[in-house]
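Worked example 3 (structure in, sequence out).
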């Protein structure tokens, strides 16, 4: 076994690798950026070394810095995790050149599978079916537009390099092709340093099914069954499960054999995933699946495979990298029960899943039979705009799919996160969705059911607001009591304490609040029927109705109220705390999150129509298009392309007609 390992990654996967390495008796070395100085994985490692500023290109993507730390600390191996340098052949080559074991496949295999066009040509020669489309080198926009016409709409534009949904656009009609191509190329360049794309036929009712493969350096290759990753949003996986619903033994054997052959074709070693798209219109059929790509690394969703096989894939990676043989053959591998994983993200489903950053004022996960939590953060940590906003992976295992989904839904309902908004309620509704439960789903399931899943603006939760406002009242009363006690040793007059004391009648006192940044007028209610008590009413709600919340979390600036998986921030309203720069609410297009202003498509004096593209903001490696809220004239461009902008910053000022 290897004596030590440097983890060239961060967050959840770094913590995951450290846990297994520690169990195997390996010394662990972490590298971190300035933004991660206090991160959980830095605390867990035996030693940790700073490698640069927060942007990944200046830290986690710096091969020379990471190799230098490995040499200086005497690390016997480097584990790249997933993302960052995990699929960079030059990183594997640099490790080999410096006598460091790369815990992953050979550089030749990474190169062979790193470009989707070349990979598809390679696996075709091995007899693996591929999606019809153009996979060539020519990138002229007019040529690609013509190829899309020949293939037939809808088509999918995909970055040749990389994955994770970046540089990918579905195009329904020819009129949208140019804008989609431009966006895909720009996103691919930013994410992978390579703007090239391919164009494929979009498969109707597509199911995304992938096969986990494992190979040693002695010619042994097996598959560890399949995972279904069809529940996606913007081509990014949301929920994954194993085994795939509706999978037949015949289909599993054919797909498994194809995946193994693809791995053999490139001399693969270690953990890898061969991803297929299946036409699910008539169920899963052996003659209707196609190779998409091979990820030459560990996958985010590997825990569901671990749950149904009982294997530790990171341990297997270390053993194979040490030169050991696989300890089993294909026929030795059973499937035990069913497992489902949900990706808990700091994002707001009510605002088109915009990333949500900030301090985690509370973070608690449930414990129970069949529940596993993989996380890289803890309460008090900061979700920054520099990296993927994943908070945790919540994994549930059960004897049946129904039991696993029940456990996952319950676990998500018991998860407490205060600070950044999360997709916890959305994920719970997904687990409970009738169509998904019945196995009637494909990659478009989420987009077709947004309303049912609570996506988009939701009504204000006045019950949550009432609880938060009542907490503010209690805190203010306690503050005034303490101030009064400190001011004099003499007993305070009850008339000097603003606790709602009165002799007769029922009255209410106006209370201005900020609720998730918007002004709300509440009222504190005092009643003869409830002597000595007050409550807060918002809207037309009955202030004395007995309601429940999940949790109330105090922060210096207010109270976070968690109810039914949603979070409401209630703060006192200060009329003197006004942001003068952003007072012109009606005419400003603002940054929806902290990020980089990638492009501006208009100039002062331009006339724009409602829904027209105005600008693009990039955050956490994904692009977000800003459109005109109404017909208007562009009055001002308030930020330059390339600038880092804060959430709420004014970008474009529009002048609407009276």
């Amino acid at each position: 076994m290897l004596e030590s390992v440097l983890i060239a990654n961060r967050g959840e996967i770094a913590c995951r690798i450290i846990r297994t390495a520690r169990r195997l008796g390996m010394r662990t070395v972490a590298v971190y950026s300035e933004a991660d100085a206090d991160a959980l994985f830095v605390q867990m490692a035996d030693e940790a070394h700073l490698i640069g500023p927060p942007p990944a290109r200046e830290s986690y993507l710096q091969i020379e810095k990471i190799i230098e730390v490995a040499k200086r600390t005497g690390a016997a191996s480097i584990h790249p995790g997933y993302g960052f340098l995990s699929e960079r052949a030059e990183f594997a080559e640099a490790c080999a050149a410096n006598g460091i074991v790369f815990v992953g496949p050979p550089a030749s295999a990474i190169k062979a599978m790193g470009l989707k066009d070349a990979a598809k040509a390679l696996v075709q020669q091995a007899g693996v079916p591929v999606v019809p489309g153009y996979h060539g080198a020519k990138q002229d926009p007019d040529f690609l537009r013509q190829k899309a016409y020949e293939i037939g709409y809808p088509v999918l534009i995909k970055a040749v390099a990389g994955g994770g949904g970046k540089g990918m656009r579905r195009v329904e009609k020819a009129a949208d092709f140019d804008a989609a191509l431009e966006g895909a190329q720009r996103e691919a360049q930013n994410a992978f340093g390579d703007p090239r794309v391919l164009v494929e036929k979009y498969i109707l009712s597509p199911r995304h099914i992938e096969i986990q493969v494992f190979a040693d350096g002695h010619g042994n290759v097996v598959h560890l069954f399949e995972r279904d990753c069809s529940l996606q949003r913007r081509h990014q996986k949301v929920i994954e499960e194993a085994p795939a619903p509706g999978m037949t033994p015949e289909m599993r054997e054919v797909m498994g054999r194809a995946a193994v052959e693809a791995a053999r074709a490139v001399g693969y070693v270690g953990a890898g995933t061969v991803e297929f798209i299946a036409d699910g219109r008539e169920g899963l059929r052996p003659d209707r699946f196609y190779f998409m790509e091979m990820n030459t690394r560990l996958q985010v969703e590997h825990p569901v495979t671990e749950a149904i096989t009982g294997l530790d894939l990171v341990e297997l990676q270390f053993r194979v990298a040490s030169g050991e043989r696989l300890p089993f053959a294909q026929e030795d591998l059973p499937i035990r029960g069913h497992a489902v994983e949900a990706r808990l993200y700091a994002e707001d489903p009510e605002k088109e899943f915009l990333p949500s950053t900030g301090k985690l004022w509370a973070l608690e996960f449930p414990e129970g039979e069949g529940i596993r939590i993989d996380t890289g953060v803890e309460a008090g940590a900061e979700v920054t705009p520099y990296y993927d906003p994943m908070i945790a992976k919540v994994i549930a295992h059960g004897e049946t799919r129904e039991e696993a989904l029940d456990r996952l839904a319950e676990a998500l309902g018991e998860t407490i996160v205060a600070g950044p908004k999360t997709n916890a309620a959305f994920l719970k509704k997904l687990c409970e969705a009738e169509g998904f439960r019945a196995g009637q789903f494909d990659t478009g399931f989420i987009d077709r059911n947004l309303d049912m899943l609570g996506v988009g603006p939701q009504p204000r939760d006045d019950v949550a607001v009432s609880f938060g406002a009542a907490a503010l009242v209690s805190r203010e009363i306690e503050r005034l009591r303490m101030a009064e006690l400190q001011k004099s040793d003499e007993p305070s007059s009850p008339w000097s304490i603003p606790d709602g004391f009165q002799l007769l009648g029922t009255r209410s006192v106006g209370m201005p609040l900020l609720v998730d940044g918007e002004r709300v007028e509440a009222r504190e209610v005092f009643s003869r029927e409830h002597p000595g008590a007050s409550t807060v009413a918002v809207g037309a709600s009955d202030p004395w109705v007995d309601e429940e919340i999940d949790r109330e979390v105090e922060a210096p600036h207010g109270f976070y109220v968690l109810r039914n998986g949603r979070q409401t921030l209630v703060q006192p309203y200060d009329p003197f705390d006004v942001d003068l720069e952003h007072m012109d609410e009606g005419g400003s297009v603002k940054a929806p999150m902290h990020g980089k202003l990638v492009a501006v498509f208009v100039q002062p004096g331009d006339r724009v129509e409602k829904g027209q593209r105005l600008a693009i903001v990039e955050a956490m490696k994904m692009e977000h298009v800003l459109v005109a809220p109404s017909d208007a004239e562009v009055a001002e461009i308030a930020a330059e392309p390339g600038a880092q902008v804060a959430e709420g910053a004014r970008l474009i000022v529009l002048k609407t007609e009276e």
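Notes: The CA atoms of residues 388 and 620 lie 6 Å apart. Residues 491-503, 576-586 have pLDDT under 50 and may be disordered.
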